[in-house]
Amino acid sequence: MADFKTRIDDLTGFASTDDTALNDWLSAGARSVMNVLPLNKLERVASNENFTNNIDVEGKKILAVVRKDNNHASKIYTPCRKLPPSMMGRVNDTNYMEAASESDPAYIIQNDVLNTYPGSNASNDSRVVFVNSSITVAHGDSSIANFPDEAEEAVVLYGARNALNRLMNGMNAISALTVSVSAPSAPSISTVSYSAATSGKFAIDICHLICIWVIETVNVCLRCLRRSHVRGAYILIAHAKCAGIKHHGVVAV
Length: 253
Description:
The chain is α+β, with helices and mostly antiparallel strands. The chain has seven helices and ten strands. The chain has a four-stranded antiparallel sheet.
């Protein structure tokens, strides 16, 4: 399989000489993926290291701690239970249930140092099982040691995502944009012809309609309307005269 740099370039077209960035992205991706892998996958690629009494565990993801049972004829490895640093006193006091023994050992981690209890009876009688959580990956690598093969593609995708972010950041510069514009064409319109409206006839027709509506609706003749003192009656009569309206045999005069 191709190296990680080639695989990232195939996905993104990054094709950069910034190999340092690729190394950082790949290493960060491997550590992030390792933090979410299930225990059964981590156990498959785990390492172990023997120690006496204590060991520095910085950069180690602890899967298990065991200690030899000195009272057993075969001095078999016995699983150690984990206790918080607050139990540092009780782990050595048999009056407490937290107390450790040869057949029921314990361990405490404080300041990146793992200590087993009871203390060692012989050199390298304790063992820690772990995976390397400070793993580093180089752009020229094509595989990752002590790492599940099926999870390597996730590391490539992690690096590809960061490469795409870098490419998009490069597009933020105005100089990277090309804009082509042109002025729109002026609209054209054909010759418009029209005839002026006759306002006088329109006004008379409107008055005619108003007078007919008032007389028919109120059901009064023009004589009655003339005798009334209703506001606007004389205006209606005047309009009726103008329109020549006849009602009840009376022509407006």
